[in-house]
Amino acid sequence: MFNVSHVWRNGVFARTIGASYDWVFGHQRLAVPYGRLVMGADLSRAYEMMTLVADMPDSAAILDVPCGGGITLRHLGDGQRVRYVAMDISPAMLTRARGRVPASLDSQVEFVEGSIERMPFSDSEFDLCVCFNGLHCLPDPGAAVREVARCLRPGGRLVGNFAVRGEVRRADIYMRILRATGAFGPGGTADDARRWFTDAGLRIDTLDCAGAMAYFEASRPGSSPVPH
C-alpha cells in the first residue's frame, strides 16, 4: 500500500497526476460534467459552498486545508480583511495555489507546507476551516478531523466535501484505482464521516450525499466571537 503523504509530496506525481486533477477542478465547466459522469454527483454545489469564504467578516481567520491548487481562495473578495491560511502537504500544489492569489490579497494569504494530522497552529485559532475534495486524499481522515476541531474556535465551522464509498458503483471502481496509485487514502462512507465528526467533538449541522459525494458542515459547540 502506498504512503499517500509521500505520494503527494513527490514532485513528479504532483506536477502530473496531481496537477491534472487540480486543473479539472479549477475549471467548473469541466468539473461539473466529470462529477456527473464519474461520481454521479452535481459538483456545482461544492463551488457554491466555496463562496462562503467571501462572506466572512473582517478579522475572521480562515484555514483552507488541504488547499490543493488554491481553488477555494479564488472566492475571496477584493478588499476583504481576513486572515487566510492555505495549507497543503505538497510543495507543488502550494506553488499552484500561490499563482491563484489576486494581487490585491497577496499580503493576506499565508501558505504553510505540512500535514493536516499535525498542524502548526494553536488551539482555537480559526473561525472557519474549508476542506474541499480533501478527506478522501488523506491517510487518516479521522485524525485530520480531530486536528481541525482542535484548531477551531468555539462556534467555528468545518465546511467541505469528499468522495464517499458505497454510493455509486462506477465511483467505487474509480476510487479503488486512485487508492492503488496512492492518490487517494482509505476514504470512508457517510457513516464513517459521522463518526469522524462526533469523535472530534463537533456538532454535525449538515451531512448528506449526492451520488458519491458527501457535503458537510460541522461546528465546534460554543459561541463564536465572529458573526456569521
Give the radius of gyration: 16 Å
In the CATH scheme, the class would be Alpha Beta
Report the end-to-end length measured between terminal Cα atoms.
Answer: 42 Å
- SSE series: HHHHHEEHEEHEHHEE
The CATH superfamily appears as: Vaccinia Virus protein VP39
CATH architecture: 3-Layer(aba) Sandwich
The major pleated sheet works out as: 7 strands, mixed
Shape: globular
Biggest sheet strand order reads 3-2-1-4-5-7-6
Q: Could you state the oligomeric state of the chains shown?
A: single chain
What's the rounded overall pLDDT mean? 93
Count the beta strands: 7
Unreliable residue runs: none
Helical content band: 25-40%
Describe how the helices and strands are arranged:
Elements: H1 4-9, H2 11-25, H3 28-39, H4 44-50, H5 52-55, E1 61-64, E2 83-88, H6 91-98, E3 109-113, E4 126-132, H7 141-151, E5 152-163, H8 169-181, H9 190-199, E6 203-210, E7 213-219
Parallel strand pairs: 1-2, 1-4, 2-3, 4-5
Antiparallel strand pairs: 5-7, 6-7
Task: Note down, in words, how this protein is organized.
The chain is an alpha/beta fold and 228 residues long. It has one domain: 3-Layer(aba) Sandwich (Rossmann fold). Helix content is 38%, strand content 21%. It has nine helices and seven strands. Strands 3-2-1-4-5-7-6 form a seven-stranded mixed sheet, with helices on both faces. Helix 6 links the parallel strand 2 and strand 3 (109-113). Helix 2 (11-25) crosses helix 6 (91-98) and helix 7 (141-151) packs parallel to helix 9. The mean pLDDT is 93.
What descriptors fit this protein?
single chain; 228 residues; alpha/beta; Rossmann fold; seven-stranded mixed β-sheet; 9 helices; 7 strands; globular
